[in-house]
Amino acid sequence: xxxxxxxxxxxxxxxxxxxxxxxxxxxxxxxxxxxxxxxxxxxxxxxxxxxxxxxxxxxxxxxxxxxxxxxxxxxxxxxxxxxxxxxxxxxxxxxxxxxxxxxxxxxxxxxxxxxxxxxxxxxxxxxxxxxxxxxx
Length: 136
Description:
Blueprint: H1 16-32, E1 59-64, E2 70-72, E3 75-77, H2 81-92, E4 99-104, H3 110-122, E5 128-130
């Protein structure tokens, strides 16, 4: 007979699988989380400081009044996209890539400016500039 007491084994908790799972969860949440960067832009348009560039190329000027009325090269145009496209085609003439200058009142809605830019893009004009005044 064996009356010797067996020495109880020490309990050992293996936390390696737990650490692995925690790291996998951490990596999952880091990859799947979108970080939203919010910034506040304080801009005052249409003031800008810069040099006045004189060009010999044909320019198409689009003036946008504060009420959303479009004037292309001193000709009043209605605000729908089809009439803007027709007026841009007439103003550009034979030039396939004129410089388009958008002069918008600072009270003009963003939609009116985007409509003018969209019309210029549909015509294939890629040289679009915005005019501004120098601050006092």
